[in-house]
Amino acid sequence: MNFEQTDDRRMLSDSLSRLLADACDPKTRAAAAYTAPFHSPALWTKLVELGALYALAGPAQGGFGGGGFDIATVFEALGAALCPEPVLPALMAARLLTHAGADLEPLLSGAVTYAFAICELVSWDLAEIETTARNGTLTGHKSVVYGGQVAAAILVVARDGDRLSLYEVAATEAQIIPYAMIDGGGAAEVVLDATPARLLIADAAAAVQDALDAGALALSAEALGAMEATLAMLVDYLKQRRQFGRPIGSNQALQHRTVELVTEIAQARSIVILAASRMGTDQQSRTVSMCKHLCGRVAQHVAEEAIQMHGGIAMTWEAPVSHYAKRLVMIDAQLGDTDHHLKRVMADLQAV
Known about the structure:
By secondary structure, the protein is an alpha+beta fold. The chain has helices at residues 7-23, 26-33, 41-50, 68-80, 87-100, 105-108, 205-240, 252-277, 284-310, 320-331, 338-351; strands at residues 114-117, 132-134, 137-146, 153-160, 163-170, 175-180, 186-196, 198-201, 242-243, 246-247.
């Protein structure tokens, strides 16, 4: 396996990182992530102009990427900057619209913003979806719809008899209840009551799982970027913070704990690479779940250790490390936590 990035992906990563360093510094990010519309429309426009969304779709759909490594490249850069923009729903919508054979240009150009409504209450199990489709209308309640607070079109998974189908709903037709998530960025509750909807995919189970896999890989890569940034802040703090006339980083116990984090983050990077390499293969879902499970555990450990070794300052709003720690903990909950993905891996192995 080739672990080196291609020149195109390296250029994309560098361009994204420079843009985010200029436009998404910690103070600017905190102001945008918790104030309606819970992201920065100006930064969103810059990301679209840079081509970040085009990197999430293949050439056949008008993009220039779409592979696992393209997803990982984009989201690792977003994670390093704690970017609150609704790129994750755009990625999952791109996967679904590709399966539907729809035109992706409105999404990739930023002309139309999409959200993907699948979660109901607290479950990510597709078997528990209760939103129903009847005569071209949908009825149900979707929770924590990422990017739903600004979406013009919402892709909704609904039960149509014995199968899961995918529908498109105009946001103006549904009841949208927007809010900021605890770690910044926006989401919404979507209430459907005989809401008019357009059928995109009649039997959508495979397409939905593919979108969830892509989303889980993206979140794992985002966690990787956030973990690397957190580690850099921690090492810098250990070198600069002095007690009893010497840097606290000279304490051997703290050195050992930091090295342990370095090792765990390296393991997380390895499995992100493996999961990216297996997108589009018959091992996609299992490997992505392994990746989300491991990255979720490591992310929580990095967050806990960063807070403990920074001391009380890491609990303050003003310290950037506090926002990284909060995001790392919450990433584990998105699109299924460590327990959910461990169960998926075990079930898949038992089925072999």
